[in-house]
Amino acid sequence: MVCGIIGITSSEDVLDKPLGVSLKEALKKLEYRGYDSVGFALIDKAGRLVVRKSKGMIDAVAAKVGFELFDGYTGIGHTRWATHGPPSDVNSHPHTDCSGKIAVAHNGIIENYMELKEALIDEGHTFISETDTEVIPHLIEEFEKKGFKPYEAFKKAVELLRGAYAIVAIDVNDPRKVFFARNTSPLVLGFGVKANFVASDAVAFLNFTRRVLALRDGEVGYITPEEVVVERLEFREGRPVWVAVDFTSRVKNIDWTVEMASKGGFKHFMLKEIHEQPYALASTIASAAESVDKLAKILTRVDRVLLAGAGTSYHAAYVAALLLRKYAGLWALPVVSSEAQWWLSTVKEGDVVLGISQSGETIDTLKAVREAKKRGALTVAVSNVIDSAIPRESDIAIYTKAGPEIGVAATKTFTTQVTLLGYLSLRTGVLNGFLSESEASEAFKSLRELPNLVRHAINTYEAKMASLAVEMKDRPNAYFLGRGLGLPLSMEGALKLKEIAYIHAEAYPAGESKHGPIALVEEGFPTIFTIVTADEGELIKSNVEEMRARGSLTIAVFPKNLEDIARLVKTPIKMPVVKDVAASALYIVPHQLLAYYTSVKKGLDPDKPRNLAKTVTVF
Ligand code: AGP
Q1: What is the mean pLDDT of residues 275-291?
Q2: Rounded to an integer, what is the distance from CA 94 to the centroid of its chain?
Q3: What is the DSSP-derived secondary structure letter of residue 266?
Q4: What's the pLDDT score for residue 265?
Q5: Whose CA is nearest to atom 13 of ligand 1?
Q6: pLDDT higher than threshold 80 for residue 82
Q7: Which residue among 307, 362, 382, 421 has the greatest number of ligand 1 atoms within 8 angstroms of its CB, and so is best to mutate?
Q8: Does residue 83 have a pLDDT over 90?
Q9: pLDDT band at residue 2, thresholds of 50, 70 and 90?
Q10: Residue pLDDT, tens place only, 25-71
Q11: Which CATH number fits domain 266-448: 3.10.290.10, 3.40.50.10490, 3.40.640.10, 1.10.645.10?
């Protein structure tokens, strides 16, 4: 899972506030990643290391430790999501060495920490936490004792680590530097004026700079207020040597704004992000026209397409596979990333594998892309984060333009993924001649209308879903049933309700419901149908009847012209009649709102569901 990391180094008083406050503000921006403890370390103006940390949420910890009381020019902060050792004050980061001069915050897992810890204990080091991270400051200390300068000692320590990590460290013996290292876990640098930043996500420092460098695996370095150094370990004549990385061409200006990364008057990020969908879709559609053509041309020549994704991105992959089949006549298969290896075993040159991931960092999806590449397939990333790991490692990258998504539950990234991939399906169908011109023009028109349709759907259904949430909030279970495109949308609806409202929600192909799941259905058991096309509606009628006959609370999201469905279900959610390529994004909106309001009515925080993190970088 992911923790949040920030490192700041500034000269003079450019931050305009105590460093402790800047660290706290950056950590607040990283809250969405999921955490149970908070801490920071800074070198104060007298050159002493100050560390304050505790189990709990940022505001509560801030009230306890007083971030505003501490100032300096170099500091690091951390939000921890427990892996090694339960959430506790002592297990919170940053961790320090025996002398209390070095502080380290870390995201990821150090696989060989036990053997390192034992060796350090033999050398006389004392450990106070149960974490894997604590070995790092002690290793640095050990190398300094052996005569290495702080940055050299940091690199020597990193050389010994195995596993996934993003690390930041500060050291009173070299007080203007924040050291960093990345392997698998995300880490980005921000280039400011008389101040530089390192963080797990650029949203942490957007109020200072939008000039960003996404670090790559194996990169290690440091920032000072004036300088950024990035190095990587290479083997020359069999010997490891650290060589400087020329990163100038990789520094990008990101078009995310501070407002995009703040709640802007909404109670939760999730609600704001649901409401942002019209803009996100309009930007994605506008950029799709330029970005997907090269890929569409390639797809006209390929044999098979596999689409890998996790969670919501898997549901987008499923929708896209159906659209690629329907509009471009392609053999396309969606696979859950963590299961991809069993499907990838016959992939070869001539095949295309899409890795779909809003964050671009999900390790299961990255692994699927790596495996596909090894087997000679062309790899394509579909991401919302420029230069993240999956786009970097893929042959081609296309991007949704959803802006930063902070809420743990994916909303605008799903609708933009589906739309971008729908657009790709249409373009491929046009280029390979599978799709007639008239059908293509009607379908493209529906995509152009989509932002307004989504805006209208939000306005129409927000209040209705809020009141339906009152009915849903005390139900322990729900089924989401669909056929065709309605199935992945049902899966997405169920995931939303499960992850933020903690209701046990299962999605099934509607036709499968009578092969087992129906055994649970009794008076008041909610079954929520999603119907995208008239064909699906025709087939699903008997399934609705079956549920009705058992007293189920039937709800359906469907095109408003399907009168039979309207008559059959208790709660009809009548949607505009629109081409399926657009309906695949539009018809999820009521589900998003239902999950959001059910969570809120249960008194939960939809932005920070328990046990979940926004980006999952562990297998
Ligand atoms: C979605 O609401 C979930 N939080 C989760 O399933 C997510 O979609 C999944 O972890 C994949 O993330 P990605 O798109 O960043 O790869």
Answers
A1: 91
A2: 24
A3: -
A4: 75
A5: 357
A6: no
A7: 362
A8: no
A9: low
A10: 999 988 877 678 899 999 999 999 999 999 988 989 989 888 889 99
A11: 3.40.50.10490
Interval 578-592 mean pLDDT: 98
Confidence of residue 134 (pLDDT cuts 50, 70, 90): very high
Tokens 């309207």 locate to 566
Question: What residues are annotated to the active site?
Answer: 3, 614
Mean pLDDT of the 599-611 span: 91
Q: Is the dihedral of CA 190, 191, 192, 195 positive or negative?
A: positive
**Banded model confidence at residue 1, pLDDT cuts 50, 70, 90:** very low
For the chain, what percent of residues have pLDDT higher than 70?
A: 99
Residue nearest to atom 5 of ligand 1 (CA): 311
Q: Is the CB of 499 under 6 A from ligand 1?
A: yes
Spatial CA neighbour of 366 closest among 385, 338, 387: 338
For residue 507, the one-letter residue type is A
Do residues 473 and 501 lie in contact, with contact meaning Cβ atoms separated by under 8 Å?
Answer: yes
Backbone CA torsion sign across 11, 17, 19, 25: negative
Domain segments of the chain: what residues? 4-261, 266-448, 461-619
Residues with Cβ < 8 Å from 522, sequence gap 6 or more?
A: 550, 551
DSSP label at residue 215: -
Tokens found for residue 92: 């919170």
408 lines ligand 1 (CB under 6 A): yes
Task: State whether the beta carbon of 358 lies less than 6 angstroms from ligand 1.
Answer: yes
**Residue 359 Cβ < 6 Å to ligand 1:** yes
Mean pLDDT of the chain: 93
Say what the pTM is.
Answer: 0.77
CA distance 313 to 336: 9
Assess if CATH 3.30.1330.60 describes domain 4-261.
no
| Per-residue pLDDT tens over the stretch 506-515 | 999 999 988 9
CATH placement of domain 461-619 = 3.40.50.10490
For residue 322, which phi and psi values (nearest 5 degrees)? -65, -40
Atom of ligand 1 nearest to the CA of 359: 15
Distance CA 400, CA 469 (A): 30
Domain 461-619 in the same topology as domain 266-448? yes
Q: Decide: helix, strand or coil at residue 378.
A: strand
User: In the predicted model, what is the mean pLDDT of residues 492-499?
Assistant: 97
Distance of CA 379 to the CA centre of its chain: 20
Q: What's phi and psi for 379, nearest 5 deg?
A: -105, 140
Q: Which residues contact 596 (CB under 8 A, 6 or more apart)?
A: 268, 270, 271, 274, 409, 465, 496, 500, 606
Type of residue found at 474: D
Whole-angstrom Cα distance, residue 224 to residue 380? 36
Kindly tell me if the per-residue pLDDT of 481 is higher than 80: yes
Q: Is 417 in the pocket of ligand 1 (CB under 6 A)?
A: no
